Amino acid sequence: MPRAPSRPEDGALPASVVDIQVELIAHATEDLDKVLEAARAIFPPEVRDKVKFKMKSYKGHHGNPITFLRARVRDRDLAKAILAYIGSRLDEASREELGRGLGRRLSGGSLFIRLDKQWASLGQLRLCASDPIWIKVRFSSSKLADIIQACREAGLIP
After folding, report:
1. What predicted TM-score, i.e. pTM, was given to this entire model?
2. For tag attachment on the chain, is the N or C end more exposed, with fewer CB atoms within 10 Å?
3. How many Cα atoms sit within 13 Å of 57 on the Cβ side?
4. Phi, psi (5° rounding) for residue 23?
5. Domain boundaries, position 138
């Protein structure tokens, strides 16, 4: 008789992805099309044109134009596929860093990731701290153990 898949000891299912929000800034010195291309590089190729970014223009501190871009994916299956794609493209050092500091990147059942915009434009995903692509992944649970399991299943952490 086949064995049932293993579950956490309390019988609960791991957290599932509820939605993903992506935000980034295009500075006056950047080509907006290339910034959009970098943002779309975090999505699986077959859905890149399906995810729509809203854009809003602002003036920076010195009067320089800034474009703020935001996309939200509320389809749970698509959000899960995007998270798995990010996990498959994230470099090993970033995966390990994310695993070590996962608790510091969580708040209220949401995981906050900053990806390097420049590396994304080259098709590679790496964590960074400055001028990032901000990603907020909202989970169905706020329990750390559930989110760790979901992140492992998505390939985000070792």
Report:
1. 0.88
2. N
3. 5
4. -135, 145
5. 17-154
Backbone φ and ψ of 110, nearest 5°: -120, 140
Number of domains the chain is built from: 1
Tell me whether residue 6 is in a domain.
no
d(Cα 143, Cα 138) in Å, to the nearest integer?
A: 12
> Is 92 inside a domain boundary?
yes
Angstrom distance (rounded) from CA 86 to CA 62: 35
Residue for token pair 């003036």: 59
* Position 5 in a domain: no
User: One digit per residue, pLDDT tens: the chain, 158 residues?
Assistant: 443 444 444 445 579 999 999 999 999 999 999 999 999 999 999 999 889 999 999 998 888 999 999 999 999 999 999 999 999 999 999 999 999 999 999 999 999 999 999 999 998 999 999 999 999 999 999 999 999 999 999 999 99
Burial label for 99, CB within 10 Å (0-12, 13-18, 19+), is middle
Query: With 0-12 CB in 10 A as exposed, 13-18 as middle and 19+ as buried, what is 79?
Result: buried
Identify the helix (H) or strand (E) that includes residue 59: strand 54-59
Distance of CA 67 to the CA centre of its chain: 20
On whether residue 2 sits in a domain, the answer given is no
